[in-house]
Amino acid sequence: MTAALVTGVTGFTGGHLARHLVHRGITVRGLVRPRSLGRPEVATLREAGIDIASGDLTDAAAVAAACEGVDVVYHIAATYREAGQPDSAYRAINVQGVEHVIDGARAGGARRVVHCSTGGVHGHVANPPANEDAPFNPGDVYQDTKLEGEQLARAAGQAGGLEVVIARPIGIYGPGDLRFLKMFRGISRRRFPVLGAGEVFYHLTYIDDLCEGFRLCGEVPAAAGGTYILGGPRYTTLNTLVDLIAAELKVKPLPVHLPVWPFWLAGAACEAICVPLRVQPPLYRRRVDFYTKSRAFDITRARTELGFAPAVDLPEGIRRTIAWYRAQGLL
User: Fold this and answer.
1) pLDDT digit string (tens) for 66-118?
2) What is the pLDDT of residue 115?
3) Average of pLDDT values for 33-57?
4) For residues 217 and 116, what is the distance between their CA atoms, to the nearest angstrom?
5) What is the pLDDT at residue 268?
6) With contact defined as beta carbons under 8 Å apart, do 169 and 122 qualify?
7) SS3 call for 52
């Protein structure tokens, strides 16, 4: 029986992946930071049959211990965007943490590491759709360090002794996700004006499809050394995405389109004031980028080489997500 380690197991993607692997008959261990061991999610993971190992990505010895005896390491954990967090914190997790995972996997005898990067390393897609060979254009320290971590992992695989597969997920959503809640809630309350023309592309990937893509990255022999964009069946314009969500919510979207530049300037001002104080800005430029940067991707390589076949199209995925939000009292 295959054994796997999943890092970031208390997060949305890592938790779903761990349970997905268990359902496929894989023995799963999850790496959890010591300060998170008392969280309710950890008890739920244990109930699902997931073994819990205590350790932080900055602790090379703890990571190596967690890697002992597993065949595949799914490295999902990362530090995301957080107000006031110094660049060194991103580098400690998103770069040095990758090095600890690679070293631990090699020492523990793992066959393969699936490293979770992000489609964000491509930044704005000027010539959609982008494939894995599209130019890199990271737009902030998070994307910069994710690209650096990806490159470190790839180089380790090329050095031999360990198979490394790079996965770049796109626009992850579904039951359990809270990142898109503000958008869904705004549309439901008819308080979600679109900035700009709304004709930029957006590409969403339902969590169950993504987890199966990760599993294929871990198990398909020919994937060794490969890089794969894992995205949903299709991308669409922001206007169409808003219309689809509104239709499932049974509301009319706002017909209002507002200019981008006042919000970009306001975001810059909020960041200048709030970030040094380590206060989350009420508005920041990255949020404005949502309305101005296209994200549209070609998943042909994953379809062809992995057999990746995302099955949950936007209307169904949106419907399931809304149902979960409502069940949690969030909408």
Assistant:
1) 999 999 999 999 988 665 667 888 899 999 999 999 999 999 999 999 999 99
2) 98
3) 93
4) 10
5) 75
6) no
7) strand
Q: Which residue's structure tokens are 């999943």?
A: 6
Q: Which domains does the chain have, with CATH numbers?
A: 3-175+206-233+296-312 (3.40.50.720)
Residue for token pair 């790496």 = 31
Mapping DSSP onto H, E and C, the string for the chain reads CCEEEEECCCCHHHHHHHHHHHHCCCEEEEEECHHHCCCHHHHHHHHCCCEEEECCCCCHHHHHHHHCCCCEEEECCCCCCCCCCCHHHHHHHHCHHHHHHHHHHHHHCCCEEEEECCHHHHCCCCCCCECCCCCCCCCCHHHHHHHHHHHHHHHHHHCCCCEEEEEEECCEECCCCCCCHHHHHHHHCCCCCEECCCCCEEECEEHHHHHHHHHHHHHCHHHCCCEEEECCCCEEEHHHHHHHHHHHHCCCCCCCEECCHHHHHHHHHHHHHHHHHCCCCCCCHHHHHCCCCCCCECCHHHHHHHCCCCCCCHHHHHHHHHHHHHHCCCC
Three-state DSSP class for 242? Answer: helix
Question: Do 124 and 137 touch, CB atoms closer than 8 A?
Answer: yes
- How does pLDDT run across 116-173, given as a tens digit for each residue? 999 999 999 989 999 999 999 998 888 999 999 999 999 999 998 899 999 999 999 9
Bridge partners of 202? 236
Under 8 Å between Cβ of 67 and 61: no
pLDDT digits (tens, 9 = 90+) for 250-305: 999 888 898 887 777 776 776 777 767 677 776 666 777 888 899 999 999 999 99
pTM: 0.94
Indicate left, alpha or beta for 7 from its phi (over 0: left) and psi (-120 to 50: alpha). beta
Q: Please, what is the end-to-end C-alpha distance for the chain in angstroms? A: 42
Alpha carbon dihedral 52, 56, 60, 63, in 10-degree steps, equals: 20
DSSP secondary structure, 17-32, as one string: HHHHHHHTT-EEEEEE
Based on C-alpha coordinates, what's the Rg of the chain? 20
